Amino acid sequence: MSESNKPSLEVCLSPALLHLYDVKNSIVVIIDVLRATSTICTALYNGAARVIPVASVEECVNIGKAIGGITAGERDGRIAEGLVHGNSPFEYPREFIENQTLVLTTTNGTKMLHMAKDAIQIVTGSFPNISAVCDYLISQGQNVILGCAAWKDRVNLEDTLFAGAVVSRISANFDINCDSAIAAEALYNTAKGDIYSFMKQASHYKRLANFGLEKDIEYCLTPDGANVLPLFKNGELIAG
Amino acid sequence: MSESNKPSLEVCLSPALLHLYDVKNSIVVIIDVLRATSTICTALYNGAARVIPVASVEECVNIGKAIGGITAGERDGRIAEGLVHGNSPFEYPREFIENQTLVLTTTNGTKMLHMAKDAIQIVTGSFPNISAVCDYLISQGQNVILGCAAWKDRVNLEDTLFAGAVVSRISANFDINCDSAIAAEALYNTAKGDIYSFMKQASHYKRLANFGLEKDIEYCLTPDGANVLPLFKNGELIAG
């Protein structure tokens, strides 16, 4: 902690920069707005027993088989071969996911999660659960790293915007000595009047819009549609 | 080049991300606003024959001795032991630097420069030579990477702001499919009304202001005070 006696709040814009941060002494929020962390909180909000994040399609298939879970994941915007569901939050309504285990493979989000495994606590964040994340971070009084999953290590707008939104909400409770946090908050302040329009410039928007997923994107950019806190414990995400 | 037939314009926010970019097919602009690239253009603008950027103090001493150059560089905000001058642009007025060789060691800027050695061309940029940089990039019609030197690989405000200023000036001539470029431009647009005040939040501002260098910072954030283009050729920066 700094001289101000407040815990620190930092933003890491890419997994390729996470080694520069003191993960071990921080709570890490994994951010993969389009769409992994939006889908995770949605499934838990709708009553999923747990979400198991895995790195590979093979692991997803094997774990799904072993525990009778719902296997999900996409590669290049389509359901991966061998899996049954995709990455869209709309695939996980209560009547489908309640009391089920979702085994989810995502490239960027899962990578970040495994890299942050020594953190005090890992949680996942995105606009649909922003209030739950902010309330939790304030309540804990620990150092925080907002970890953007990015896109193949390239900084992206949507994760940076979410990090900025969190900074703007909770900065009074933290000591901010991190230029990425200042930049993310400024970006969010520029975009917040109409985040959806702002995101139309983003490289990922173009990728997803090509698959007709505008509805997903709008949901993933809207606050508090699935306001639950996913906590990572023993390899699983459960509702906190 | 993309379908638009315009060359691409990308921003790399940290040397730790440069491997994600196609350096070989691009012009790379090395950006180290506080203060290496501001000092480099200032020395060349004031008539220095060349600037030789080196990584270590030892190399700086040895090359300086061998060629009779002026050795300069700081470590932790003070002139490094064995060197004669510091990093401030105000140390290099015409009456001192004209026709001289400046051998300059900086940690962040030099690192980025060596990493980009396979680029089509390396130039250095900062606010004091922003117009020269922009005119050059437009004239070349090549892909461009704006490479922020950052601070020990951590993203910083001042280099990101300069990248954003360049994007805002030349975007019409390029195809932009890079979220870092969009974010940098948005950041610049937020700050441009009063960049100096905005920068007071920055971590590096606090480091330098502690050494009483507000005057340096103000100069380094002001456009076109030393409007020359430093071109990297055969290990040296010369006025283009």
Could you please describe the fold and organization of this structure?
The first copy, chain A, is α/β, with parallel strands linked by helices and 240 residues long. Helices cover 38% and strands 19% of the residues of chain A. Chain A has one domain (9-239): putative 2-phosphosulfolactate phosphatase (Alpha-Beta Complex), CATH 3.90.1560.10. Chain A has helices spanning 36-45, 57-67, 94-97, 108-115, 130-140, 157-170, 179-191, 195-199, 203-209, 214-220, and strands spanning 9-12, 27-31, 50-54, 70-75, 78-79, 101-105, 121-125, 144-148, 230-233, 236-239. A 4-stranded parallel beta sheet of chain A has the order 1-8-2-7, with helices on both faces. Chain A has a 4-stranded mixed beta sheet with strand order 3-6-4-5. In chain A, helix 5 crosses helix 6 and helix 6 crosses helix 7. The model of chain A has no long low-confidence stretch (mean pLDDT 94). Chains A and B meet through helix 7 and helix 9 of A and helix 7 and helix 9 of B.
Q: Helical residue percent of chain A?
A: 25-40%
Q: From the 3D structure, determine the CATH topology of chain A.
A: putative 2-phosphosulfolactate phosphatase
CATH class value of chain A: Alpha Beta
The span between the termini of chain A is 25 Å
EC number (chains A, B): 3.1.3.71
GO molecular function (chains A, B): 2-phosphosulfolactate phosphatase activity; magnesium ion binding; sulfopyruvate decarboxylase activity
Cofactor (chains A, B): Mg(2+)
Keywords (chains A, B): Hydrolase, Magnesium
Name the features.
four-stranded mixed β-sheet, EC 3.1.3.71 (chains A, B), 2-phosphosulfolactate phosphatase activity (chains A, B), putative 2-phosphosulfolactate phosphatase, alpha/beta, 240 residues, four-stranded parallel β-sheet, homodimer
